[in-house]
Design goal:
This protein is of the alpha/beta class. It contains eleven helices and 16 strands. The chain folds into two domains: 176 residues, Medium-chain alcohol dehydrogenases, catalytic domain (Quinone Oxidoreductase, Chain A, domain 1), CATH 3.90.180.10; 139 residues, Medium-chain alcohol dehydrogenases, catalytic domain (Quinone Oxidoreductase, Chain A, domain 1), CATH 3.90.180.10. Strands 3, 5, 6, 7, 8, 15 and 16 form a seven-stranded mixed sheet that branches. A six-stranded parallel sheet has the order 11-10-9-12-13-14, with helices on both faces. The protein has a three-stranded antiparallel sheet with strand order 2-1-4, with helices on one face. α3 packs across α4 and α3 packs across α9. The relative contact order is 0.14.
Amino acid sequence: MQFWGIRFEGGKPKLEPREAAQPAPGKGEVLVRVRAASLNRGEFIARAGLHGDTVELKPAGAEAAGEIVALGEGVAGWRIGDRVMGRARGGFADYSVIDAREAMTKPDALSWEEAAAIPLVFLVVYDMLVAQGHLARDEWLLVTGISSGVGVAALQTGKLLGARVIGTSGSAAKLERLRALGLDVALQTRSGDFVDDVLKATGGRGVDLAVNTVGGSVFSACMRALAFQGRLATVGYIDGVAASEIDLDALHAKRLHLFGVSNKLRNAAQRAETVAGFKRDILPAFAEGRLRPLIDRVFPVAELPSALDYMESNAHLGKIVARWPD
């Protein structure tokens, strides 16, 4: 089978195709024939510029959708032929392995491309907004870098939960398009100069939950924009700034809650718990047509390097997906 690997050269990610034997599912895993897989920026910046270059080519792709073709030992509740989506190990491949506990039934209402755009990004958002963020109806949600895949999914999920959403982006055109998805307040900026506008929009109160997809350059501004007992989720650092000062007076006086969102150190049982909550609370909205991922562009899998170049150009709004031939 063919798979695509990733390495970093000169601080830049490179995707290269290789041939390998078809993997076998291990205990508690399912093997999936991949129909579509989506790109996630975190995979392409996690090491570039922060942890140096890599020589070894590692399997790429973190979420995929397709049909189950083999079951590992001890797998129950799934059958060969089931259409599923999930966080995958080496999803940019003809065949990929998924932990059976993290596999989710593909809603019939969704295409393969749409299904592939859900598992990782919407699970991250569920972790931020529901599991840790406890976002409630009529609360204010701030999303920095709202035009990213995670940002758009946060907007969509926030509106599903009944929140009022403020979003920042450097592109006025992207912000205008997001108004159709329910964006309440659009702030055109790439820096941390949004605090006064956020306070004005919320009547001086601040937001209940802020999602920082940008990084250290806006961290302190996100803190200043929080209301009493506000929560701040940090999910990435696309600005390459992995450090920031913390206003201890604000943290103390406003009883703030700061938390990170990452699966890097979580064990399989912890990840599975989040998936179970997502299936219960959010997945029905996809099945019923109340929620659909926003896909910017679909590339044939043979054009994955072009898909990566497109992501690096920052021209997209929402998700970029790779499609395998039938």
